[in-house]
Specification:
Shape: globular
Distance between the termini: 42 Å
Number of domains: 3
Oligomer: single chain
Number of helices: 16
Strand order of the largest sheet: 6-5-4-3-2-1-22-23
CATH class of the largest domain: Alpha Beta
Radius of gyration: 24 Å
CATH superfamily of the largest domain: Ribonuclease Z/Hydroxyacylglutathione hydrolase-like
Amino acid sequence: MKITFVGAAHEVTGSCHYIEVGSKHILVDYGMEQGINTYENVPLPVEEGMIDYVLLTHAHIDHSGLLPLLYSKGFRGQIYATDATADLCSIMLRDSAHIQMQEAEWHNRKAKRSSDVEQFVPLYTMEDADGAIRCLSPLRYGKKVKICEELSVRFTDVGHLLGSAAIEVWLTEDGVTKKVVFSGDIGNDNLPLIRNFQTIEEADYVLVESTYGDRLHAKAGVDYVSELAATIRETFSRGGNVVIPSFAVGRTQEILYFIRQIKENHLLDDLGDFPVYVDSPLAVEATGVFNKNVNECFAEKPLELVKRGINPLVFTGLNLSITSEESKAINFDMDPKVIISASGMCEAGRIRHHLKHNLWREECTILFVGYQAVGTLGRAIVEGAKEVKLFGEPIEVRAKITKLEGVSGHADKAGLTRWMLGFKTDPQMVFVVHGDDEVTDTFASYLHDEHGFNTYAPFSGTCYDLLTDEFVEETVGVRIEGAKKKTRTVSTVFERLVAAGQRLLAVISHNEGGANKDLAKFADQINSLCDKWDR
């Protein structure tokens, strides 16, 4: 019964933890790395086709984004997540696949122009995303479910994103059961749409995130509606646009809720029924998922509106942009407007086109409403870059750059502490993960020194035996030279063949103990295939 830390170890993105219990191989999250990565991640300890189950804390791409890659390399197990997370993944993984395929197409066009014959293949395809989505098995909050003899799980609302959960995991081996709790990403207090996090009372081991483990958000009681209204008024008075780079899932819906309150409370009536554009097909689809899951996930105030027959995410002047033609038309309309577009860190998507058209205009405002990872375009703009490159063209930054301070889906240090203090008895060990390099150590020391927890901040590759309560391997992070943005080796057709072979080995393993007649037939089929292709 071992746990190996693979991703989000002394880093914020790329969450992935591997569990081996009995004969079962389990992943908790399999996320994509975003922004600059400080350390190398170890590969999965087993071939992808050997993974039996994935437990998914929530739908954000840094937790779910490599599930299609897992499928492409032979995984055919089940992915357990909450109902809302499964709904969101069904659109977000397809969107991620679309981005992978677009990037490959762009690289291939560029290679042709430079006489470079090397062909780029996307990290995964739409077919891989569809395959991963078919593996999703939704579970409801609060219900303990026995998956197999070695594994039982329960999902608890953690208030970070629609459907987000901390996962209670019971592992059984050799007659001994240990309980491990994976926090996922813990939500900030009083998010406008979804409920606050719930605590968990018991655990033998805890993995807790630490994104904001070294700081506090803005003081409680900040009036985001008034602040947003003031930004819109000031920008419109200059004749400019308010451009909001926003995560398509979660943050966009919160901003819509704020703007609905601005209009409902007549805070900007003198500006007329000003237009608001949501220019992100993903955000539009995600808003539909939010509306579908109101009863299970929404906080009290928006739920009250729903019960009165009022959609909390809809108001007059709202325009949903789906097609590329509709997106392009936004920047040919010179009337002041609010433009909400993804991606939130400005790394991809239609927001880059809106930045190209608005960054150089002194009358405009670029309003950031979420975390900007190191190495992203959004981080560079927030930190005062005078010029950025978009689509190969240098663009001067003349627009006003500002932030809606304190708007965060992550709990701060105080919130993380409250979640940890929900345990009635101290766990044997608290592993601090999902934080920047120094933050994980800082938060681990704080929990130990101030609250008496036995803490450890693992690097990728660290392995811990839960039965013997000791480290199998302690690693030191292998730094990426220059901490450059990590690029993944593109897959090839031959790699697909290798992945198919790995899946075949997994299928053979899964058939151990089967009837001799069936196994003999299976062996004959494999040998016949080998005879055909053996060169």
